[in-house]
Structures are given as structure tokens and as C-alpha cells.
Amino acid sequence: MAEVNDRISDIVGKSDVVLFMKGTPLFPQCGFSSRAVAILDHCGVAYDSVDVLQDMEIRQGIKSYSDWPTIPQLYVKGEFVGGSDIMMEMFEAGELKELMDEKQVAKADS
User: Fold this and answer.
1) What is the residue extent of each domain of the chain?
2) pLDDT (tens digit per residue) in 65-107
């Protein structure tokens, strides 16, 4: 498990924003992942994604890494933010944009 945690830490540390999801941003494989992508796209931030369906170790490991049972999972500047429901609540309240601005997250290329 330590090796998987190291891999996840590496992934989370390499980008300002990382979304662990089912599928890819262009082809999400579940509604929750699709909603998470739409929220991030609407925020206009650059982000990386990890398709947990392509790596079963990551798929299981991310749940214990964050102590969060579901996917997708959003990380901003190395910190776990939450899943799609929390992302949606934060987005609707304006808190997600505030967090991105506060953390000085890079904007997406237009």
C-alpha cells in the first residue's frame, strides 16, 4: 500500500489541480465524473485527470489515501477537496472559484 500512496502523492504533487475520475475529461464513464469535469471546465482552471478505471491499484488506493469512499476526488495544491457533491456545493456557493483564486491555480488555455 505504501507504494500506491507514494504514486498518488507524486501525482497530487505534480499539478495544481488533479481530478481522480472514472474515464477521461473527454469521455467520462459516470455521471459524477462528468459533473466534476463540467464544474472544473466552468471554473476555467487547468487540471490533470487520472482515469482510475485504467489502474486498479490507484482506484482502491485513492480511497484510503483520502479516507473518502467514492470517486471522483478533487485535489487542489495537494489538498483533498472532496467528491462531486462537495464540488457542486462549493461551486454553487462561489467557494470553489474562491479556493482556486486563493491558491493561485493556473487558468486553462483558451
Assistant:
1) 2-100
2) 999 999 999 999 999 999 999 999 999 999 999 999 999 999 9
The span from the CA of 18 to the CA of 15, in Å, is 6
Q: What is the CATH number of domain 2-100?
A: 3.40.30.10
Supply φ then ψ for residue 10, to 5 degrees: -60, -45
Q: What is the pTM of this model?
A: 0.96
CB of 105 closer than 8 Å to CB of 76: yes
Question: Got the DSSP string for the chain?
Answer: -HHHHHHHHHHHHHSSEEEEESEETTEESSHHHHHHHHHHHHHTB--EEEEGGG-HHHHHHHHHHHT--SS-EEEETTEEEE-HHHHHHHHHHTHHHHHHHHTTPPBPP-
Are 90 and 1 in contact by the 8 Å Cβ rule? The answer is no
Nearest to residue 31, comparing CAs of 71, 80, 86? Answer: 71
